[in-house]
């Protein structure tokens, strides 16, 4: 069985020292090992942004896609080979701005895969512009007088779109993050994990200390029941989505692959790519 070290490669990440994305990378590697995966049974598909580099830093199949398009690629990979564990990943700009249409439909489609968003509430790669996750009043080069747009609440959006697994974590809490990724991988359907992953270079407001001050861990709410959809929604609304842990899980809904009539359970990659002459003539 592979250890987490076997999910490492020899490429040194070029994230800024202190970037939250380092912990997300470590958590994926640990979770993959803890659930018994091998590098050849995992595919990590990412979009564009600082966080999008993550697919190159994990020893597994990987594809660094195009901006906002990690999910269509990842869903295609999963449908082509159901035996692969597929993780899509990217930033809040990638998944909640240009990619939001794909995100909503991937959620409601419920293909068995995991989507990890590194949410730093800013565009990091392009040197610090306001993202859909930035707070109202947030000042950057793109909103010098402060953002006047409402902040997107992706987890509320996910639950209303029919999500079957919604979780949130903080890159400083490696133990919780690793456990949630394990649960997300094991969930039979689409799992969304939003991770507060500070951008230490361009976001001087939503820092590690700021998150520590504002986050409530669901473990401190003993009566919280993640199978209760209404409770999940009201708790998100009441806390401004500043909660971490498993927020909502529906274990009853079947995943997309199990509902498609006649969908072949065996990986499509093992089937012949072209028809023989006789098969073609018999069409
Ligand atoms: Fe991380 Fe921000 Fe540096 Fe990008 S710019 S690597 S998000 S700290
Ligand atoms: Mg971002």
Automatic annotation (TrEMBL):
InterPro entries: 2-oxoacid:Fd_oxidoreductase, OFOB, PFO_beta_C, THDP-binding, TPP_enzyme_TPP-bd. Pfam families: PFO_beta_C, TPP_enzyme_C. Residues 128-147 are annotated as: Disordered. Gene3D superfamilies: 3.40.50.970. Residues 199-264 form the Pyruvate ferredoxin oxidoreductase beta subunit C-terminal domain. Residues 48-195 form the Thiamine pyrophosphate enzyme TPP-binding domain. Keywords: Iron, Iron-sulfur, Magnesium, Metal-binding, Oxidoreductase, Thiamine pyrophosphate. Its cofactor is thiamine diphosphate; [4Fe-4S] cluster; Mg(2+). This is 2-oxoacid:ferredoxin oxidoreductase subunit beta. It comes from Paenibacillus motobuensis.
């Amino acid at each position: 069985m592979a250890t987490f070290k076997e999910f490492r490669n020899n490429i040194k990440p070029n994230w800024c020292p202190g970037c939250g994305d380092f912990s997300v990378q470590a958590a994926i590697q640990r979770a993959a090992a803890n659930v018994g995966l091998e590098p050849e049974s995992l595919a990590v598909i990412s979009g564009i942004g600082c966080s999008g580099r993550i697919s190159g830093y994990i020893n597994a199949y990987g594809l660094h896609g195009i901006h906002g398009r990690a999910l269509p690629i990842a869903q295609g990979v999963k449908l082509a080979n159901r035996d692969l564990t597929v993780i899509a990943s990217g930033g809040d700009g990638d998944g909640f701005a240009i990619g939001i249409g794909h995100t909503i439909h991937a959620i409601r489609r419920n293909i068995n895969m995991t989507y990890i968003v590194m949410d730093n509430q800013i565009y990091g790669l392009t040197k610090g512009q306001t993202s859909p996750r930035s707070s109202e009043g947030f000042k950057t080069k793109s909103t010098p007088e402060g953002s006047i747009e409402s902040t997107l609440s992706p987890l509320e959006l996910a639950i209303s779109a029919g999500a079957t697994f919604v979780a949130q974590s903080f890159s400083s809490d490696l133990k919780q993050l690793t456990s949630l990724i394990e649960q997300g991988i094991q969930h039979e359907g689409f799992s969304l994990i939003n991770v507060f992953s500070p951008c230490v270079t361009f976001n001087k407001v939503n820092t590690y200390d700021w998150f520590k001050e504002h986050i409530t861990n669901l473990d401190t709410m003993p009566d919280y029941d993640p199978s209760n959809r209404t409770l999940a929604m009201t708790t998100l609304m009441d806390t401004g989505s500043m909660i971490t842990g498993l927020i909502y899980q529906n274990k009853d809904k079947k995943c997309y692959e199990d509902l498609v009539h006649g969908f072949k359970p065996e990986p499509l990659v093992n089937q012949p790519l072209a028809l023989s002459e006789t098969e073609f003539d018999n069409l």
